[in-house]
Design goal:
This protein has about 230 residues and is mainly alpha-helical. It has one domain. Helices cover about 85% and strands about 0% of the residues. α2 packs across α3 and α6 packs antiparallel against α7. The radius of gyration is 24 Å and the shape is elongated. The N and C termini lie far apart (about 60 Å).
């Protein structure tokens, strides 16, 4: 039967990487610019800091996401290999495991056993991956996708605060970067909520508040030390 209902849960993998990358880009760039500007640094230092931050941050996000999600993929593959071996060595016990899972979910034992039999005949490993291990297509680890999305969205997020800093005179730079970055974060939260079907206002406020906290701390450090970092 054709499935016509629209759900957003399949977006979880790339949406998480995209929001994390863009949020990190905005907060990291804005925080560093505020910290450097608060120390009294000039435009040239801010440009060098901003460009270095954009490149290093994007590469760091890509590497971190790739390593992290690769570890997740390795764990999933190891569990699947173990399950495949158990299915070959003791299929009766594996059938009993599936039956017990379906009984725990509310089916009577006879129906649970029949469901286990039919799903095993159709795709034994797929049934155990989904119902015993919790591994489904929508949450399969995709290291390369996560790395590319995180790096690209970090760069996209980091660029606006840098451009704002370059366009404003030194006297207005700190407030301009702070206010515009909070606006960027609020928009990011709204876009993420819209994509995921979550409440927009709550998501926007949450993202903006944490960004404000990070920027305030960094600006405070820059002011405290009063040196170019």
């Amino acid at each position: 039967m054709r499935h016509d209902e629209f759900h957003r849960v399949h977006r979880i993998g790339w949406l998480r990487a995209a929001v994390l990358g863009a949020n990190d880009g905005i907060v990291t760039m804005a925080s560093l610019i505020l910290g450097v500007a608060a120390s009294g640094a000039g435009t040239q230092v801010i440009v060098l800091t901003g460009v270095a931050t954009l490149v290093a941050g994007a590469m760091s996000m890509a590497a971190g996401e790739y390593v992290s999600v690769s570890s997740q993929a390795d764990t999933q593959n190891a569990d699947l290999a173990k399950e495949r071996a158990e299915l070959a060595e003791d299929p009766e016990h594996e059938h009993e495991e599936l039956t017990a899972i379906y009984v725990a979910r509310g089916l009577d034992h006879h129906l649970a056993a029949e469901v286990a039999t039919q799903l095993t005949a159709h795709d034994a490993l797929g049934a155990h991956a989904r119902d015993e291990l919790g591994i489904a297509d929508m949450n399969n680890a995709r290291p390369l996708q996560a790395a590319v999305v995180s790096a690209a969205t970090f760069a996209v997020g980091a660029l606006p605060p840098l451009l704002v800093a370059l366009m404003l005179p030194q006297s207005a730079r700190m407030w301009g970067v702070a206010v515009s970055s909070l606006a960027f974060l609020a928009v990011l939260g709204a876009m993420a909520a819209q994509s995921g079907g979550a409440p927009i206002a709550r998501s926007s406020v949450r993202v903006a508040l944490w960004g404000a906290f990070a920027m305030a701390i960094t600006a405070g450090v820059g002011t405290l030390f009063g040196v170019t970092v």
